[in-house]
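[SOLVED] Need 3D model of a two-part complex

Original post:
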Amino acid sequence: MLAAPDGRVVATTDLLVDGRHFRRDWSTATDVGRKAAAQNLADVAAMGAVPTGLLLGLAVPPDLAVAWLEELADGMRAECEPLGARVLGGDVTRSDVLVLAVTAFGDLQGRAPVTRSGARPGDVVAYTGRLGWAAAGLAVLGRGFRSPVSMVAAHRRPEPPYAQGPRAAELGATAMVDVSDGLVADLQHVAVASEVGIELDTSRLEVPAKLRDVGKALGVEPMDWVLAGGDDHALAATFPGDRRPPAPWKVIGRVARGRGVVVDGAAYPGPGGWDHFR
Amino acid sequence: MLAAPDGRVVATTDLLVDGRHFRRDWSTATDVGRKAAAQNLADVAAMGAVPTGLLLGLAVPPDLAVAWLEELADGMRAECEPLGARVLGGDVTRSDVLVLAVTAFGDLQGRAPVTRSGARPGDVVAYTGRLGWAAAGLAVLGRGFRSPVSMVAAHRRPEPPYAQGPRAAELGATAMVDVSDGLVADLQHVAVASEVGIELDTSRLEVPAKLRDVGKALGVEPMDWVLAGGDDHALAATFPGDRRPPAPWKVIGRVARGRGVVVDGAAYPGPGGWDHFR
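Solution:
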């Protein structure tokens, strides 16, 4: 049972499939638990709500060690605790493939929920959190490396800026999303839901030196990680043009008439972000 | 977003794995949807709450027809509608194995939630709904038959007595559970959680003529289906001895000191109900 002092509950659910959304040889059980919790808690925060709890459904192959599952639950609890959220319970069943089903809940504290459909021409587009780090970490692991540690850690354990979700709602955000598929792909969801155009200006998107270094080492354009890399769970939001959000929010574009995302005045031809059906 | 007029929300989650919890050659997509919804909605009812909504997570193999998924969602909506509950949304991802993750929500309407841990010596044990029908239907299908239709239908599409959950709470139920694993197995959960003994009297458990007929045809003792058959999602509850519940509740035993379920004075040696880890 979950307290819902607001009289409304925000709820979101996600499935994570072994070998597809995580790899047990690349991440510890604790990391997988933290990540599974984080992506759902970030989704709650992106609605402007404060995360309150999680339910965990587990489909478990018979050969999986109980210790792995205990560490997974520990990871989820560790991610919840600083937010004041709780792991409420769940279900365990057997399956040939390990699947995690996480449902997260949040409280709106009296505010209206922020959706994807509220962006209006004249709004500014801003983000806060990391962009491209998890994707760079995944690329590093995919080439058989284990460093730079900060990138690999970002892949294993995202650090969503949870508190900025409710704050953005207070600041008057008109639409918000957490960056799970990639900045362009997730803003595309906002553009479609809001029936607007979104114009990004990459000169406003800082590419950290570390990301540039890894890009150089792997022969990848680091801006593609920033624009198309998912799994960092940064928050991206639109705000009325006369209410530009303060730091750590960073304005990176504007909302216009049209439909869809335009990067530096052109359609973005890049990797396209994480496709749930690839 | 979900209304929570009570200021609290009851939430429960379950995973259903293709080939384990359902078979696509034995059940239509609509039936699977209804059943997936029913087992979670029944769990909500067993807490004394009125179901308000569902979230659906889907891990889908690439070769599964979109029409199958649409019918699944139709089935879930059909199960929700008469209860005033809604399918709120969900998540779709790819997997080699079809997995459904259903999370259900309920409203307590100001009542205390009924748990598994409140049974006290002196209470009576009662149930309402079907027992053994789904198990008999599964046995019929397992032998390659398609009739009796009523048993097969009971396997494909349970009919939990949803309204009796909140009613039992109003009647003062001290503990409640929906029968998903089997009557003895689920009452065992109550006995363990409540630290009591539960004494069942099978002479009070009616075995319908149809169940006896199918048992005779398949060479199965039908009382085993009644005691150990899961998936009908009947409700079993304990009530204070001086507040015996009215029909359709049927008193079938009593709560005593001790720990665990005793059937007709002895430990139940039967099939043991549905084991989630078999």
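Edit: Confidence is low (pLDDT under 50) at residues 272-278 of chain A.
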